């Protein structure tokens, strides 16, 4: 048609555009919450779509947690509120003087309770630029605002979004190599709980995640995987690269600590001693029993040979004595004479 109009109830949509072939889009006017039918008018023909549109109240932000991030960014922030399900796009904006950073959040990433009373979405904080004459070093408070479609909700007067120093890791200049024992790994980190929470942290052994167990201001503990994943070739930018699950295809896996957008190589975990550590007790017991059996067998064999040799010697001695007696008796009863015959 030459002219298209879209009505939400009795309210006419604004800025009608043909985005694709046979597709129209428009902006809703300000409407009180309720359920409205949708009517399309093309030239003089009225089309009732027999579909309803639910109009909710404007989004309400009830809670933002946390409101502190480390300077490198990447901290997980959760925004909770009401009536987020009617939002199409959300723009999160951080700004300080001439610096600003924007994050786009799709409506598919919005979580809503079954009854629709509460909604929430997550995002990760952007990193700050390096300190300079125009940008101070941390700690620093930045402006923060949310843009729900065309409605901007400024939160600068409600909260202060603060950036602080990155967490400090006690990393050796030469990453140590630790033996895998099946026990938990402990990592010392300073000011951890001030700048991060558990969802901000990941610990990897090779390509497998080390499951976090405890999280305190002094550090974390995690349970390493029972075995390493082998290196796998991945395609990146049409080039085949090696995924470093192990160190040079060995039984040693790199330990990587990831917090926010940053990743640190803090050491290596060696699975070379896995078999010896896992079966050391069994092996020792087996060796003890084997040595005992061998010792007993040697003793038995020795005793057997000793008694056998003794019996042989005894038999030889008896035969010798018997032979000597027989020879003596033979000489005593002999009829041979050495006298020679001669004339009388």
UniProtKB/TrEMBL annotation:
<feature type="domain" description="IPT/TIG">
    <location>
        <begin position="58"/>
        <end position="164"/>
    </location>
</feature>
<dbReference type="Pfam" id="PF01833">
    <property type="entry name" value="TIG"/>
</dbReference>
<dbReference type="InterPro" id="IPR031148">
    <property type="entry name" value="Plexin"/>
</dbReference>
<dbReference type="InterPro" id="IPR014756">
    <property type="entry name" value="Ig_E-set"/>
</dbReference>
<keyword id="KW-0812">Transmembrane</keyword>
<dbReference type="GO" id="GO:0008360">
    <property type="term" value="P:regulation of cell shape"/>
</dbReference>
<dbReference type="GO" id="GO:0005886">
    <property type="term" value="C:plasma membrane"/>
</dbReference>
<keyword id="KW-0472">Membrane</keyword>
<protein>
    <recommendedName>
        <fullName>IPT/TIG domain-containing protein</fullName>
    </recommendedName>
</protein>
<dbReference type="GO" id="GO:0007162">
    <property type="term" value="P:negative regulation of cell adhesion"/>
</dbReference>
<dbReference type="GO" id="GO:0050772">
    <property type="term" value="P:positive regulation of axonogenesis"/>
</dbReference>
<dbReference type="GO" id="GO:0002116">
    <property type="term" value="C:semaphorin receptor complex"/>
</dbReference>
<dbReference type="GO" id="GO:0030334">
    <property type="term" value="P:regulation of cell migration"/>
</dbReference>
<dbReference type="InterPro" id="IPR002909">
    <property type="entry name" value="IPT_dom"/>
</dbReference>
<feature type="transmembrane region" description="Helical">
    <location>
        <begin position="279"/>
        <end position="307"/>
    </location>
</feature>
<dbReference type="GO" id="GO:0017154">
    <property type="term" value="F:semaphorin receptor activity"/>
</dbReference>
<keyword id="KW-1133">Transmembrane helix</keyword>
